[in-house]
Amino acid sequence: MIVPLNKLKNFNDPVYGFISISCSLVYDIIAHPYFQRLRRISQLGLSNYVYPGAQHTRFQHMIGAMSLMQQAIETLEQKGISITTPEKEAVLAAILLHDIGHGPFSHTLENILIKNLEHEKISLALMHLMNQDLDGRLDLCIEIFTNRYRKSFLHQLVSSQLDMDRLDYLRRDSFYSGVQEGVVGQDRIIKMLNVHEDELVVDEKGIYSIEKFLIARRLMYWQVYLHKTVVAAESILIKAVERAYELSAKGEQLFATPAFSYFLTQQPTAANFFLTPTGSTNAPAGINAYTQLDDNDVMASVKVWCHHPDKILSDLCLMIRDRLLPKIEFSNVPFEESKIKALQAKVALSKNIPLASTSYYVYTDSIRNRAYNLDSLNIKILYKNGELIDITRASDQYNIEALAKPVTKYFLCYPKNVIFTH
Amino acid sequence: MIVPLNKLKNFNDPVYGFISISCSLVYDIIAHPYFQRLRRISQLGLSNYVYPGAQHTRFQHMIGAMSLMQQAIETLEQKGISITTPEKEAVLAAILLHDIGHGPFSHTLENILIKNLEHEKISLALMHLMNQDLDGRLDLCIEIFTNRYRKSFLHQLVSSQLDMDRLDYLRRDSFYSGVQEGVVGQDRIIKMLNVHEDELVVDEKGIYSIEKFLIARRLMYWQVYLHKTVVAAESILIKAVERAYELSAKGEQLFATPAFSYFLTQQPTAANFFLTPTGSTNAPAGINAYTQLDDNDVMASVKVWCHHPDKILSDLCLMIRDRLLPKIEFSNVPFEESKIKALQAKVALSKNIPLASTSYYVYTDSIRNRAYNLDSLNIKILYKNGELIDITRASDQYNIEALAKPVTKYFLCYPKNVIFTH
Amino acid sequence: MIVPLNKLKNFNDPVYGFISISCSLVYDIIAHPYFQRLRRISQLGLSNYVYPGAQHTRFQHMIGAMSLMQQAIETLEQKGISITTPEKEAVLAAILLHDIGHGPFSHTLENILIKNLEHEKISLALMHLMNQDLDGRLDLCIEIFTNRYRKSFLHQLVSSQLDMDRLDYLRRDSFYSGVQEGVVGQDRIIKMLNVHEDELVVDEKGIYSIEKFLIARRLMYWQVYLHKTVVAAESILIKAVERAYELSAKGEQLFATPAFSYFLTQQPTAANFFLTPTGSTNAPAGINAYTQLDDNDVMASVKVWCHHPDKILSDLCLMIRDRLLPKIEFSNVPFEESKIKALQAKVALSKNIPLASTSYYVYTDSIRNRAYNLDSLNIKILYKNGELIDITRASDQYNIEALAKPVTKYFLCYPKNVIFTH
Amino acid sequence: MIVPLNKLKNFNDPVYGFISISCSLVYDIIAHPYFQRLRRISQLGLSNYVYPGAQHTRFQHMIGAMSLMQQAIETLEQKGISITTPEKEAVLAAILLHDIGHGPFSHTLENILIKNLEHEKISLALMHLMNQDLDGRLDLCIEIFTNRYRKSFLHQLVSSQLDMDRLDYLRRDSFYSGVQEGVVGQDRIIKMLNVHEDELVVDEKGIYSIEKFLIARRLMYWQVYLHKTVVAAESILIKAVERAYELSAKGEQLFATPAFSYFLTQQPTAANFFLTPTGSTNAPAGINAYTQLDDNDVMASVKVWCHHPDKILSDLCLMIRDRLLPKIEFSNVPFEESKIKALQAKVALSKNIPLASTSYYVYTDSIRNRAYNLDSLNIKILYKNGELIDITRASDQYNIEALAKPVTKYFLCYPKNVIFTH
Q1: Total structural domains within chain B
Q2: Cα-flanking dihedrals φ and ψ of residue C330, to 5°?
Q3: Which of B219, B367, D28, D404 has its CA 20 to 30 A from that of A172?
Q4: Which residues of C touch B10 (CB under 8 A)?
Q5: CA B338 to CA B334: how far, in whole Å?
Q6: Among D316, D334, D296, D269, which Cα is nearest to D118's?
Q7: Interface of A with D in 8-27 (CB under 8 A)
Q8: How far apart are the C-alpha atoms of C190 and C203, rounded to whole Å?
């Protein structure tokens, strides 16, 4: 086991002030190289192309969520909910590790580097590997994470519609982006948490704060996470990686760090990622490469590709490096095929590339968000008289159901200099 | 000339709120690839190893300093100081560009990547190159930057003991590190600025704020910039690059991005960096490589070197990647040679390496700071009666001269597991 | 005319930082005793009984709203809207003075001290009186305030569903109460303001911020302004003043400051308040007394009345002084007459007072709020294509109409120690 | 005993967020009328005449200091210092009550209303009275407050050069005044507290924060507490009360609330204040009047006196009511007698008053501050090697002794319209 040399006991967090590490398991998780890797993964992908302050990392978010978990535990204990010391340590571990599986630029390249593989599955695989390093001290953490533990509220604190993950990211992303719309009274919400028959619920007095939380979340989606220019920037990064994968599949040698090369040449899928046989190491080769990969590998390679002879690849990479973003349109209905075709034809002509390749420049897709998910585990309000009512019905002043309606937006990207007549 | 596709008019800054771009020259500078590169250079080197929030970039700092410059111009104009439109644009350009010459991790690798070459000289060279791209629109900016312009206060706003650079970085570094000690009333200080015979001065009412500013600066040095653990982390990064240079000089092939490879193989010096002959490009090859280099190149390479057969290199790189920092001691006097030698002997034994190589593990150096420089251009207080007095004599309550005394600290780093008997 | 001796040029506002006074009309208004009186009137009545930080005054709010008006003017001018210097001064004066008619504890005693007279009418009367002192320099201000000026947007900046008054009070009340739910990105909203055919409109990009603003306003109503305990505290203050009026009408002598005595003995109404004939002064006697009245008069008197022989009056006053608040219930439907009668009967018995007097202890009333008023001047969104759409229809993601539905709540107060069986 | 009807469990503090009440003793103290009175006493006298935001009350400060005490207890316990539950409750009570003896406008009228009687003595008297109401539950609190308890560090947390009182007021006064110079990292300082042989000490790592704290305190004195205009405003209030005492002593009837009348007519002194015999109540008549007195009594009376026939009294009161402050000069040496005499002669002439009365308009006095008191209990730094060193010698970089030098300033006030030739 690695023994860290400079023991950090407190973190100085610009958002919450001092955060203390409360137990050695937490300490050992943070010291683990898998966790230290999160220092090199930006929390919000390329959102900093619009909000330059949004440079914070997954590392900070995980520490912040852990700090909120400490507060939540304290609140529940004050309300008489019994939580044992092993449970406390496990739920702190679970919140620290629930996103350990994120790759470069967090959500941006999810499902791209490894087709159809979501980060939650990688998180679980990494937890199992870390559990070996930590001699089984993550057993209960994994039980909670996978929702197989009796006290469901512990899982719900880690992953639900009102978990410590969401409370932290809204507050933190709001802080760093400078978008005040997302400021949430997370300390007030935490004070309102309660447990009823092993389920996480919210005291009656917290109803306005919950409403505000759901609304803030929706606003942050459209104003930050799915901001038009952020969507444009991230779509270009996706296109660049897709082009590199395409060239690599054709046998072309591309500059990349060894870890990134593994993905370009092997192009693993959800089906085979965890199966990759391995000789000398504990972890499969894929996992091994993945845990060495971070923003630096991708950005360093993208910058080199700016000089690649493939015009499409170098174009896309220059657009990322120098922030030369495409035009993007949003619409509530899908874009007409004819409009897309017309744009692609123009690009084929102006760039002198085959029509088939124009989809790197002209493309459409959709994004979707809903603030509150009626199908998923609902937020329940606990009334003083003992009644338990879903937030959508508990609020007599406001139509929370409106927030449950998913919103889909279609977007269309194309080079700005392509003149288009409506 | 590059034409940016998505015109940003406002920045949402977490520190100051909205920042508006006020003229097209500022817009064009920000859009330039040399300036966009600053998005990929962290403001505070490895300070985030101690203060995880300190992830902000040179880009943000430059935009922030420009915003303070806008306020300073407004204040001076309200006090009847005449500043022409070209002067305004030039001084905004100068503050944006004064640090454009910073390399990866800002100050950390300064004088290391290119021996004895300070970033200010590179800044000036880059300004001249950008001036070509911008058809001479930076002429006046360069005059101001090099202090050859008649109205000295414009230069002093860019570079002096009370410039917009310092005002922004204290506030910003304090904000992101979460160290409240550095919070400075920058808006109050700016309101107190004035001009007397073309020199920047401070109105009498601002005297306490200036004192506070000098004190805050000193505190930030010792608590953030020269924090023990930050010094330890950055010294390891320096050692790693030095080891890579040494191996490369011996002809060893090291993985690196092309831009970083240029430095490893050419090892340019202050003497030859700008001379490098060039064929087809505007910029010399060295400058060309330099402007493509950022934190990503260094960190991506360091991570690969963790697996390098050279034990010393891989050791140092692992220490950076996984935050396994050495022990560091501070002292007001130089460390005794005998103590150092004894530690090196132990390391030679325990690591089984030649004594000559132990200086990668056991080393001493000094750091030095003074909050106020008596030799440099002093801060002058302008009294209502027209008198002009140096801040060190103006404050009747406090001994500012104490702040002018440089403080030197010696540090000694060595592996933590080397047992040492005092 | 009064000449102030210490000229304040800047205010240090905890919410916005430095606020500068930009013209001598603004300076002269602030220096006027009618305006200085606002220093002694709390912005939020008795909200500090729940939120101890909410001690801010009308004075601060007016200065803050003026500061936002300065920003709004600047933004509109940058967008090419022409606003002359006299118009600027007038609209700044109008926002400063629009609430000058508030009495002790702001809204709490409105319509109580003077039956059915709203503060807006008193504001206008005071403006006319100040206009005499200021030699007619408020003529245009009054035109704008009364919406008789051609450029309607100036009036709308002062008084509409998106005026500088609301923007400031939401932000400020949120700041001082510590209720983060009300934090509004007021600088962003102001940047989005525009003018279309002399009407104030909002640029398309501002739509989410407007939604957030409406939602924040609703949340602040229920969480601060109409917080159960605040409603209880303020209702007791109202009851105490009503009891004092009742006793005074019966000829009883009550301790009070002369200004407050005027109201107790004259009990002016909307009908006769402005008519009161006057001999030697400019202002009618009622106005004269009113402008000398503030929180101190009421609170000093209430404290003395704690020792008054009338048990009801002393009871109510003690409840205010020592924060011994009654029980309060909220309901969406009116409380049943029988429940009220039963409570009153119990109180008559336990306090040994006639049934008719129990309405000082047991009473019901209703409060009502809607975040957005469909009947009033609507907020219009200006699309890039020139279309103008009401916010309720402009937002495709959210049902703003829900916010337009007025919410009425009924409340019932009664002494806590009255045992009541449901 | 009074039973509060609406039990508050949490305070929403704009400075620290949620503050919880942790025990019933704290609850009962806060509910006591003596403590509720602090809601009506402004923390910073007339500082709001310069900093309009500084409207916060003693009540808020006491709650804030209690919240810091909770943190300090928690930190010390984590370091292994044993603190029993009764000790915890007692030290929380002591910090809540240590300033309970403050009168109207806090320090402003101290030693004026009751000659030469400091608020600490009144605090102790009130604690003893409250202890009767609370059935002796304040015994240990009083022992700690009077420093007769064995564990001295408990007293030092309440009253020393680094107590929770100072930590809170610097932070809070800085927050509300908007003067960022006073922002202190109070959470960091608290984390650095330790106990060595029953004395409160500071861990080595906290040395910079302590320096900053001392400096911030000095800056807050000169920028807020002893700001020229604040000194001028408060001196006028003192003069007005002195004039009222003088008139009252001559037998003149002045309007005042009964509680204030007691002081005007009895003019108690330190010698007789506590002796005042009493018949039917627990508290002496003086104490009885004192605990009914707050800002409202004084300000309500001052406003009435604006119309008093005594020209001097009405002049002074108008100056307060309408913020018509005198001119004030500061000097490091006493003002020359001849200058003062000359000014008084002019005032006698222009106001047509006897020379003896001019001291109400022209007067000089001195104010004095030192940031660190070498004579008082010193701040000790605890080194890792167990050494204990005074902060003045512990800091090798800075001359803390300079902060220990008391600074005396002389001021001279006179009406602005008195022309004076230097």
Answers
A1: 3
A2: -110, 150
A3: B219
A4: 191
A5: 12
A6: D269
A7: 10, 12, 17-18
A8: 10
Size of interface A-D (CB pairs under 8 A): 12
pLDDT, tens digit, 9 for 90 and up, residues D248-263: 999 999 999 999 999 9
Task: List Cβ neighbours of D50 (8 Å cut-off, separation of 6 or more).
Answer: C8, D224, D227, D229, D230, D233
Q: Among B313, B53, B328, which residue's Cα sits nearest to residue A5?
A: B328
**Does residue C3 sit within a domain?**
no
Q: Measuring CA to CA, which residue among A208, A147, A150, A218 is closest to residue A179? A: A218
Nearest residue of C to residue A171, measured between CA atoms = C180
Angle at C373 between CA C370 and CA C378, to 5 degrees: 150
In this prediction, residue C396 carries a pLDDT of 58
The strand pairing partners of C365, in sequence order, are: C411
Q: In this predicted structure, which of B267-276, C59-68, C197-206, D391-400 has the lowest mean pLDDT?
A: D391-400
> Same domain, yes or no, for D145 and D87?
yes
Distance (Å, whole) CA B389 – CA B391:
6
| C13-to-A341, C175, D134 alpha-carbon distances in Å | 57, 12, 41
Distances (CA, A) of A150 to A79, B192, B238, C25: 20, 64, 51, 70
- Please check whether residues D232 and D111 belong to one and the same domain: no
**Nearest residue on chain D to A22, alpha-carbon basis:** D78
| B114 and B187 together in one domain | yes
The answer to the question of residue A245 being in a domain is yes
Rounded to the nearest angstrom, the minimum Cα separation between A24 and chain D is 15
Contact B208 D222 (CB under 8 A): yes
Assigned domain for A178 exists: yes
Same domain, C202 and C349: no
**Sorting pLDDT into bands at 50, 70 and 90, what band is C297?**
very high
Kindly state whether residues B254 and B311 are assigned to the same domain. yes
The verdict on residue B130 lying in a domain is yes
- Which of B53, B300, B323 minimises the CB distance to A60? B53
Q: Are residues D243 and D165 in the same domain?
A: no
Which of these three, C289, C307, C325, is where a domain ends?
Answer: C325
pLDDT in tens, D188-201: 899 999 999 999 99
A223: contact with C, CB 8 A cutoff: yes
C295 to chain D, minimum CA–CA distance in Å? 8
pLDDT of B146 > 50? The answer is yes
Contact C191 B17 (CB under 8 A): no
For residue C149, pLDDT over 80 is answered with: yes
Strand bridging mode A388-390 / A407-414:
unpaired
Structure tokens of A69? 């978990």
**pLDDT tens, residue by residue, D339-375:** 999 999 999 999 999 999 999 999 999 987 766 666 6
The answer on C159 and C222 residing in a single domain is yes
pLDDT of residue C5: 31
Same domain, C129 and C39: yes
Q: How far apart are CA D216 and CA D188, in angstroms?
A: 15
Contacts of B175 in chain A (CB under 8 A): 14
Distance CA A280, CA C169 (A): 66
| pLDDT higher than 50, residue D2 | no
- How do residues B11-26 score in pLDDT, each as one tens digit? 889 999 889 888 899 9
Compare CB distances from C191 to B10, B187, B188 and report the shortest one's residue: B10
| Boundaries of domain holding A312 | 228-325
Residue D172's CATH number: 1.10.3210.10
Provide the CATH number for the domain around residue B298: 1.20.1250.30
- Boundary of a domain, candidates D325, D340, D371: D325
Q: Is B13 within 8 Å of A178 when comparing Cβ atoms?
A: yes
User: CA of C415: how far to CAs of A287, B242, C222, C305, C344, in Å?
Assistant: 67, 79, 23, 19, 10
No. of helices (H) and no. of strands (E), chain C? 18, 9
Of B96, B82, B103, B187, residue with least CA distance to B141: B96
The answer for residues whose C-beta is within 8 angstroms of residue B162's C-beta and 6 or more apart is: B156, B189, B193, B200, B202, B210, B213, B379
